[in-house]
Amino acid sequence: MNLKQLSLPELGEALAPLAPTPTAVRKVFAAVFAHGARTVEEVCAAPQVPRRVAEHLRAHGQMPRLEVVERRQAEDGFVKYLFGSPLGGRVEAVRIPIFDEKYIVCVSSQVGCALACDFCMTGKLGFQRNLKTWEILDQVMQVREEADRPVRGVVFMGMGEPLLNYAETIRAAQILSNPAGFAISGTAITFSTAGMVPAIRRYTSEGHPYRLAFSVTSAIPEKRLKVLPIEKGHPLPELVEAIREYTQVRRERAMIAYVAISGFNLGREDAQALKDTFEGIPIKVDLIDVTDPTGKYLPPSAEELKAFRDHLQILKAPIARRYSGGKDIGAACGTLEASQYGGTVLPPPPAAPAQSVHEGS
């Protein structure tokens, strides 16, 4: 029984033959996720865990853990964690500082990626496998263990397309947002998708509280196809209809992620295409400078970006420029490839004393 793989209802079902009280089940769940127990024995020592449950966990419980290969800090304070998994492969997570108050963790959901977006280094790795729920959660757990500020948000924007690993990523989000889990607000959890239309429609119909960010990059299909091969399988008109349904159900603006590429998608015609494509759909646009270590795609100059933002005024929609940090360590959007370069390699923190799983959840 992998205790880091189970949602609260699933844990209750797994322990049902022992007839624990709902409080006892919740205490086990909270010991694992809210209090960050590292061993089964620490879980068993939590208050209000009945002896018969503790004995069962000692005999059958597991608490696997990713290996931290290294921690590397960028000049701007972003920290990239390189993890190795006992199931095979390496993935990366990024600790993102938000002013001096909190952190957001950017997590990976797959080893590699099958979508092969042309400006994305992860896509050049190809697809190896989906991560399990516990592997996704352990990225957050280990960052949280070492953090000097609280972790208040998680974005599924690391390696992989999260909606191609639907069941595992949704379970991870459910545990992250559970008050007895990580207690992260559902609105502070974001899935970034390149446009998996069937999964978007499923997500919308299931009514999850988390947010979706839709990677569009160009509203001109021919241009989009050049950089996002998913355009061939899920054409832009299909994606737009799925986004329309999403906004109608959610009653909020859809976040349109737009990778800004110099000389490619920043003209007046590109802004007009966005207006025409999303007519009648409430959106907000996140501009993200492309980061391509190969040099094939270049970020816009300040003048080019300003001109494009002026063109975008015809949308009459919020326009934001998303900061993509950690460029010097390969932690920026589109650069995650399980790499090791740049910045400052951080030493492991001092060994923590045996954890006391306390009362309170």
Automatic annotation (TrEMBL):
Compartment annotation: Cytoplasm
EC number: 2.1.1.-
Key words, A-Z: 4Fe-4S, Cytoplasm, Disulfide bond, Iron, Iron-sulfur, Metal-binding, Methyltransferase, S-adenosyl-L-methionine, Transferase
Keyword Transferase: yes
Domain Radical SAM core: 99-327
Any GO BP annotation: rRNA base methylation
Cofactor requirement: [4Fe-4S] cluster
InterPro entries, per database record: Aldolase_TIM, Methyltransferase_A, rRNA_lsu_MTrfase_RlmN/Cfr, rSAM, rSAM_sf
Pfam families: Radical_SAM (PF04055)
A Gene Ontology cellular-component term: cytoplasm
GO molecular function: 4 iron, 4 sulfur cluster binding; metal ion binding; RNA methyltransferase activity
Major location category of this protein: cytoplasm
Family listed: Belongs to the radical SAM superfamily. RlmN family.
Identification of the protein by name: Radical SAM domain protein
